[in-house]
Specification:
homodimer, 327 residues, DNA-binding, DNA-binding transcription factor activity (chains A, B), Peripla_BP_I (chains A, B), DNA-binding (chains A, B)
DNA sequence: TTGTAAGCGTTATCAG
DNA sequence: CTGATAACGCTTACAA
């Protein structure tokens, strides 16, 4: 292993000087800088992470905690995170957490011992428990979820997004729109979206009809059937995740209902899943990658990351159309 | 920060003794063990990763390099990796590499500087370049790919699996079976699977008809149309990835061909994607999670990881049936 | 069974 | 502008 002393002796300077030029500090002549750099290059010197970590009080790893649920969403956020992290010379350590956050404490502990520069939570709220095990030195931020008050986060206005989505369906002429809600425990995302739907329906003077899924594919078919049982004349269903939306499209197909002729379907998030069904799913887009980038930027900016609301966008593809009855 | 000296003085012993009990070494009385453990617990002592890493020559991170391509596959392997790693007290650092492996060298460098205990490559072959940047101390293993000779790997017998898949279609009565191949550059997976298909077709005295995709969803529809242009009477298509298989099912639907009545479709890998289309995709399963677990076990076993061939399995779901003409 | 002390490779302080 | 030197927290001979 080549150490800073090797570089120093080859360049004919002291280790301290090497450290200075390597870290871009001030206090050396141009000439020594050149000599040191030559030596560094010649010897392929790389500072030792552990020695450095021991001295300094933090490392350059950023932790990301992603739920195994909604892989596609997390994956897109990750792209952004990774990009921004790499740009800033940071490495990303990803932990996937289970349904009941089984692994989260373990990961957080690891991240703390690695003196992580910060951690990003995807689609998960920051809990006091998390704050506690992480210690107070490590900044924390949530992505794709937010409550607008308590913790640093980057997300969209979920209430408004769901409101807009419902409005779109209403504008198309639909009057009976069912909502396929997500896990009700997710009060910060699903409950909020649900509110947006209810508001739009109420404004239109239409009754809300909804059933709970859990955001995942498999939860959608049964929920869809409950929805249809409640109102067999539904002409549109708004699913609060693309996975559920895709499942609805497929299930409708299976039971012989044509999409979008008989029933329109609208998804949520605009993950890759939305384009992996036929017809491709109309959905509400969140700027997932950008949110990931922003998360690392804010995390590293040292100032309080605060809350950031990103714009959402309606994307119409093949699953939304006016209802048959509107002709 | 609480250090080993704090624990030592509280327990009334030396730092060396604390180190010994913390690391489960020998050489202390039961009584001191108890005292030290009490002190550790009372002070919430945690050994400093960096100080330890500086002394010892390796850390307990396992690196995983996954292609952004085929997220679903990587995700399943990751589950296994994570599980086994956690079991052994290791942390997992995930790096996603681009199409042209853009990030791979950077990640590998990071992993080396973190003195990673080993790195796992998902669906990627170990190149001399990788070996070089990683240094010779870090063990490396590939998962879901193998060439059976040169590098440590865990995978299935791709030739045989593709052969079996083709045989299945043949046994159903199909005679005109098109192959939707993957990236031809992937000589270790796609080229091998292609060989299996060719062998089965040759044995059946049927002509091979194939087109290249790149394993991803979007590459499939155009390739499917080329396939259909070559032989409009195809009654089955075998796609060498579930994403392509799903795309074929959807595209067939779009152009008005019924699956499986008019055309059967068989996928490959048995990722979650296979169940996210309607009808659900019949496919060849690889024990992805198990492969991930095994990868870490072998990586950490210190002996040469060697090559391991896992069993594959045909899973018939809704997209394969006898051809119409067989009645 | 236990303690002392010498590093591991860096960075930071303080002289020069 | 540069060089000694003292930590950082831990492990491990080597002594006792």
């Amino acid at each position: 292993m080549v150490t800073i002393r090797d570089v120093a002796s080859r360049a004919g300077v002291s280790p301290a000087t090497v450290s200075r030029v390597v870290n871009g500090l001030v206090g050396y002549s141009d000439e020594t800088k050149v000599r040191v750099e030559e030596a560094v290059a010649a010897l392929h010197y790389e500072p030792d992470t552990f020695a450095r970590g021991l001295k300094m009080k933090q490392s350059s790893v950023i932790g990301v905690l992603a739920p195994m649920v909604s892989d596609a969403l997390a994956s897109q956020v990750m792209s952004g995170v990774e990009h921004a992290a790499r740009e800033g010379g940071y490495s990303v350590m990803l932990g996937r957490t289970g349904q009941g956050s089984t692994f989260a404490p373990g990961y957080l502990r690891t991240l703390r011992t690695y003196r992580s520069a910060g951690v990003i939570l995807i689609s998960a709220a920051i809990t006091p428990e998390m704050r506690r095990v992480l210690g107070s030195n490590v900044p924390l931020i949530s992505v794709a979820i937010r409550d607008g008050i308590r913790f640093p986060s980057i997300g969209i206005d979920d209430e408004r997004a769901a409101y807009d989505g419902t409005k779109h369906l209403l504008a198309l002429g639909h009057e009976r729109i069912g909502l396929l809600a997500g896990d009700p425990q997710s009060t910060l995302v699903n409950a909020v979206r649900e509110r947006g739907y209810r508001r739009a329906m109420a404004e239109a003077g239409r009754p809300a009809v909804l059933e709970q899924g859990n955001s995942l594919y498999d939860s959608a078919p049964p929920a869809l059937h409950r929805l249809l049982a409640t109102d067999p004349h539904l002409t549109a269903v708004f699913a609060l995740s693309d996975e559920m939306g895709a499942a609805v499209v497929n299930e409708l197909q299976r039971i012989g209902r044509r999409v979008p002729h008989d029933i329109s379907v609208l998804g949520f998030d605009n993950t890759r899943t939305a384009t992996h069904v036929y017809p491709a799913l109309s959905t509400i887009a969140q700027p997932l990658e950008r949110m990931g980038e922003l998360a690392v930027e804010r995390l590293l900016s040292l100032t309080d990351p605060g809350q950031k609301v990103m714009p959402h966008r309606l994307i119409t593809r093949g699953t939304t159309a006016p209802p048959l009855s509107s002709h």
